Amino acid sequence: MTYDSSAGQIVILNGAPRSGKSSIANSIQEHFDGPWMNLGVDTYNDMTPERYLPGIGLRPGGERPDLEEMIPFFYAALYESIAIHAGLGLNVVADFGHHDSYSQPLGILADCARRLEGLPVLFVGVRCPIRVIMKRRNIPVPGGHTLYVKATENDAVPHPVQLWQEQVHIPGIYDLEVDTSVLTPLECAEAIRHRLDLGIPEPSAFERIAAMR
User: Fold this and answer.
1) Kindly report the CA angle at 33 between 29 and 34, in degrees rounded to 5?
2) Adjacent-strand bridge partners of 179
């Protein structure tokens, strides 16, 4: 596909919580040329009313059907904002934990991909072995003591953590994948820069996902 040369670049990072997405986004903002706006899950949840949290960060398992009605609208609004930023020439990096393991399938990822049609999108799978994720979850995060389920003596890998690992990379269609257990955030960012320099694959991951029904 030929993209509008005036459009900003979009990098979507997808992976489980504590896989290292935010650190990669920070590295992109710090080291890439030009303005890179971070419009990911943390940014969006900061503006989401508390009663609707965890918002788009709702974990797999269908535990909160009372929130699910709003999740597609939250994602749609955020991706439309990403499209507007890029259309105005601003680069965007956004980190998410896309999944479709709600009380019923919502088809959010394909809808989001369609909303970025015609824009240059690099979809990056951020992978990390569950043993490393559990170590990271057990490290105290300032102000984040309620955010992450941790291991216990009787439950080395809590069920919600296992569900994230199983569901977040479905359907597994990416333009690039990185493993944060072997690469630093900066090394991941450099791999993304190299892929951008080479050009987004054709068809792109988002083009393929947008065509799914």
Assistant:
1) 80
2) 127
> How far apart (Å, rounded) are the C-alpha atoms in residues 27 and 50?
29
Q: Which single residue is written with the structure tokens 């899950």? A: 41
Residues contacting 186, CB < 8 A, separation 6+: 27, 31
**Phi, psi angles (nearest 5°) of residue 51:** -70, -15
CB atoms within 10 A of CB 69: 9
Contacts of 3 by beta carbon, 8 Å cutoff, 6+ apart: 118, 119, 120
Phi and psi, residue 179, nearest 5°: -120, 110
Evaluate whether 75 touches 108 at the Cβ level (below 8 Å): yes
pLDDT per residue over 100-156, tens digit each? 999 999 999 999 999 999 999 999 999 999 999 999 988 766 554 445 555 555 556
Q: Quick check: pTM over 0.90?
A: yes
CA distance 131 to 136: 9
* Maximum CA extent, the chain: 55
Orientation angle between helical segments 21-31 and 185-198, nearest 10 degrees: 60
